[in-house]
UniProtKB/TrEMBL annotation:
GO terms for molecular function: oxidoreductase activity. The keyword Electron transport does not apply. InterPro entries: NAD(P)-bd_dom_sf, NmrA-like, NmrA/Isoflavone_reductase-like, PCBER-like. Gene3D superfamilies: NAD(P)-binding Rossmann-like Domain (3.40.50.720), UDP-galactose 4-epimerase, domain 1 (3.90.25.10). Pfam families: NmrA. The keyword Lipid metabolism does not apply. This is NmrA-like domain-containing protein. Keywords: NADP, Oxidoreductase. Residues 43-182 form the NmrA-like domain. PANTHER family: CIPA-LIKE, PUTATIVE (AFU_ORTHOLOGUE AFUA_1G01630)-RELATED (PTHR47706:SF7), NMRA-LIKE FAMILY PROTEIN (PTHR47706).
């Protein structure tokens, strides 16, 4: 836990979602590192290193050449990992083995597929606490879970809030998470239940008039953001340092984005990428709240496409939290994230999806 000691900071607030505010008071002292302590994260354990988001995180962590990256995987896994990653095969049902694998790690990053066992993440968090891992990045990648109305309507956001509180209740680890909106390429080419595009059949469904803007991010931008966040000093090492530190983001979401766009913006980009015109598409319009209710009813009947429909339509509510750039601001500049080109990204997404 040496990473969490060092310089003592003035009072700061730890916001527990929706209903509690816990205040931790520290004695003010010189903002210098305690002799012998580390002021950087060095060892990172990554769960899901070959997955959709995990692979991009692994790539960016390795590219910094600052971290020793360990990937946890099941004994039966046949996944191939990038060169430079230490691989530990572990039975996730063996809690003592999990704790042993996490000892000495400075951070745990959890990326899990949607079909992972329900208690998988909590087991990892508990093991991290028992192993005294100072930082945990939970499996939270998406819209703004701190938006109370959005979280209430979004079935997944409430679960993410519960995980944050669980990390805090264990009393050993601090969390950080990326608010990145829905992944752009995954959502654009994933079918009409997401951003409204059925590209193979040239059909487009606009929510309301299609002009509500939301924040969305590429997988690459998410990987870069997390790698640069974890590269920051943990705390200021002297009174003259005024740059960003990891401690600024303790138990807080980090807001990033690739694009602030509407469905209409995306559609125009798709037309360029496909070399088509509006006349060659079947265009539909649907009230966004009606679509949300439709998705909810479908999901309750066991239709998973209904879940996508309700989650995606909800972020397109006017002033409904999808545009968090306006209400929260972004940490893009703090993390020195590059500006991406919407049309190039759209073209690559359609090409890679074979559409």
């Amino acid at each position: 836990m040496l990473q969490l000691v060092g310089s003592l900071l003035t009072s700061f607030f730890l916001f527990s979602p929706f209903h509690t505010i816990s205040i931790f008071r520290f004695k003010v002292s010189k903002m210098t590192s305690r002799k012998g302590s580390k002021n950087y994260i060095e060892k990172i354990c990554l769960v899901g290193a070959t997955g959709q988001i995990g692979s991009h995180i692994a790539k960016e962590l390795l590219s910094t050449q600052k971290f020793q990256v360990t990937a946890l995987t099941r004994p039966e896994s046949t996944s191939t990992f990038p060169e430079g990653i230490l691989v530990k095969k572990i039975d996730y049902k063996d809690q003592s083995a999990l704790v042993e694998a996490l000892k000495g790690q400075d951070a745990l990053i959890i990326t899990l597929a949607g079909n992972a066992e329900p208690d998988h993440e909590e087991k990892l968090i508990k093991a991290a606490a028992e192993a005294n891992v100072p930082w945990v990045v939970p499996n939270e990648w998406g819209p703004d879970s701190d938006n109370e109305a959005l979280a209430k309507d979004s079935i997944l956001a409430q679960a993410k809030q519960k995980i944050r509180r669980y990390i805090e209740s264990c009393g050993k680890s601090s969390w950080m998470c990326l608010v990145c909106g829905f992944w752009y390429t995954f959502s654009l080419t994933g079918g009409s239940s997401r951003f409204g595009f059925d590209i193979p059949n040239r059909t487009m469904t606009f929510y309301d008039d299609g002009r509500t803007k939301i924040n969305t991010s590429t997988l690459e931008q998410c990987g870069r953001a997390l790698a640069r966040l974890l590269s920051l000093k943990i705390h200021p090492d002297n009174e003259n340092y005024h740059g960003p530190t990891l401690s600024q983001f303790r138990n807080k979401p980090v807001y990033i984005s690739s694009f602030l766009v509407s469905q209409e913006d995306m559609f125009q980009s798709v037309l360029l990428a496909t070399g088509t015109t509006e006349q060659s598409w079947m265009i539909k319009y649907q009230d966004v709240k009606e679509r949300y209710q439709e998705g909810m009813e479908e999901w309750q009947k066991g239709n998973m496409e209904g879940m996508y429909k309700l989650l995606y339509s909800r972020v397109f509510y006017p002033n409904g939290g999808g545009n968090y750039e306006e209400s929260r601001g972004l940490q893009n500049d703090v993390l020195d994230l590059p500006k991406e080109n919407l049309h190039e990204t759209t073209r690559a997404a359609i090409r890679d999806a074979g559409l």
